[in-house]
Design a protein that fits this description.
Elements lengths: L9 H11 L6 E6 L5 E6 L2 E5 L4 E7 L6 H9 L1 E6 L5 H7 L9 H5 L3 E2 L8 E2 L4 E14 L5 E13 L4 E2 L2 E2 L1 H4 L2 E3 L4 E4 L18 E6 L4 E6 L13 E2 H4 L19 H4 L14 E3 L5
Antiparallel strand pairs: 1-2, 1-5, 3-4, 4-9, 5-8, 6-7, 8-9, 10-11, 12-13, 13-17, 14-15, 15-16
The chain binds flavin mononucleotide (FMN).
Length: about 290
Amino acid sequence: MVIDPASTSGANTYKLLIGSVVPRPIAFVSTISEAGVRNLAPFSFFNAICGEPPVICFSTSMREPRKDTYLNIQATGEFVVNIVSEAIAEQMNISAADWPHDRDEFEISGLTPLPSDLIRPPRVAESHVNMECKLMQIIEVSAKPRGGSLIIGEVIRFHVEDAIIDSFRIDPDKLRAIGRMGGDEYVRTRDRFSMIRPKYENSFGNVAHASACSGELQFAVVRRLKPHALDLATLRPLDRIHQRLAIPPPPRLPRPRRLPPLLHRPPRGILGPHGGRNRHRMVPSL
Ligand SMILES: Cc1cc2nc3c(=O)[nH]c(=O)nc-3n(C[C@H](O)[C@H](O)[C@H](O)COP(=O)(O)O)c2cc1C
């Protein structure tokens, strides 16, 4: 199916985006109004966009009056991005209702405000990671009904719970972040697998071993001279190849037309506890 956004309604292009760009991380944003009212709201048009300095962005959709988060950041230039773990999914969902501007959404959601170090908006104590941010820029992307404003902020302070971090590495099993699918569906981040990225080297027959799914699944990736000629067809379970293959240079194989089925749909054995449908619906309980 070919779809031209120019002749498609905004409601439908929005559906295409939220159904395809999945799972989306969730910025649980705390702000404070000029009058001092604390606000919380989730945003899944969110990502990290620069490592040095650390910069994140998220987008608030268009509506009149504008969302409290947008107004507060525009007025104060400050916000905190709190990471949503499974444990606070319900509270995050409660804060997504359209509460009036003068209601304190920490009180409504039952989450605990903790003072930030460098900015006025408080952070969420129950989040394992908080990022204190200073506004860098707001880009008004589109004023159409499903348009939005991109808010770009520099992270000026990270707060990471001691128990989930080791040598700057955050343990995803302890973070237990959730992500958003389309509509009211979410994913947990417990169903993961790894793949070592092959490196280009100017020789034939290099072998990189990749272990996947915490040892449940292992591959040997056979690399060839040109990166584009990486032979995905030679991905095989390591138990059949054994450690460090002493193989002759692989013959020149045609580029595979499609990825092996394993990369499309992992076998049942490596799926999460929910048989691969690691998703659940969450409808606002209000
Ligand atoms: C998981 C989740 C993700 C959301 N992502 C966005 C988003 O990316 N952009 C947006 O404008 N609204 C998003 N919303 C809706 C806002 O959270 C909602 O409009 C909220 O009431 C805004 O609050 P505020 O007026 O206090 O800023 C999302 C809601 C949920 C539950």
